[in-house]
Amino acid sequence: MDPVAGPPALRLVQVRHRYAPGAPEVLRVDDLAVPRGDQLAIAGPSGAGKTTFLNVAAGILEPSEGRVEVGGADLAAMRGAGRDRWRGRRIGIVFQTFNLLQGLTARENLLVAAMFGDVPRRERAARADALLDRVGLREHAGKRPSQLSVGQQQRVSIARALVNRPDLVLADEPAASLDQANAENVVSLLCDVAREGGHALVVVAHDPVVLGRFPKVLDVRHLAAA
Questions:
Q1: Is the Cβ–Cβ distance between 220 and 43 less than 8 Å?
Q2: CA dihedral in degrees (119, 121, 126, 127; nearest 10)?
Q3: Helix H segments across 65-179?
Q4: Using CA atoms, how far apart are residues 140 and 151, in angstroms rounded to an integer?
Q5: 15, 125, 152, 194: which one has the fewest Cβ atoms less than 10 Å from its Cβ?
Q6: Measuring CA to CA, which residue among 110, 136, 124 is closest to residue 193?
């Protein structure tokens, strides 16, 4: 799906971040906009600031300076539980370590995410089942994460990130725990499903397998000049 009109899914303006006053700058972004439906990879070596970028974009980490907007909403204007609730509805995150709830089944992991995203109760099961079917796991819906392969767990993580139909999907090194074949399959699936839903997708990665799937790749160290 091509990018659509409206405010960008993600915009960072004059963002700077330091982990302590007087400490070196670990992130510097002058003006970066990711339109709705667009797909972008943020590259760079370990320690270059990719995870900081992702946490700032997600509103998990408040930058030292600057403004972060998702869907036109200023994250700095939100606080505490209000920001967390808003994030659950508008941002989907695919974690490097999956962060699945081990005591729940694949389907239940999606249902919990839908509950916190304020999806109406009558719609939750249908959305969860449709996404598990789309990522090829409908027959594994009743299994817990420990009963799934690493690649299957990452597919559940992708489905969970999309269950609330977010404006923005962020993925942190989504292929880091996978072998090459699974990495290629999972990254292609993530890009395809995000495109089908019209979600903007931003992936932080250093793996060439991941970066090669994206038409736009920016080095996190050069975002001040992007």
A1: yes
A2: 10
A3: 80-90, 106-116, 121-134, 150-162
A4: 13
A5: 125
A6: 136
The strands making up 10-17's β-sheet, listed across from edge to edge, are 27-34, 10-17, 65-70, 73-74
The helix (H) or strand (E) run that includes residue 197 is helix 180-197
d(CA 213, CA 188): 7
Closest CA to 106 of 126, 129, 124, 134: 129
Which conformational region is residue 103 in: left (phi greater than 0), alpha (psi within -120 to 50 degrees), or beta? alpha
Rg (CA), the chain: 17
If DSSP codes are grouped into helix, strand and coil, which group holds residue 42?
A: strand
* Cα–Cα dist 161/3, whole Å: 20
Residue type, position 85, single letter = R
Structure pTM?
Answer: 0.91
Domains in the chain, ordered, with CATH?
Answer: 10-225 (3.40.50.300)
Of 117, 124, 215, 223, whose CA–CA distance to 166 is shortest? 117
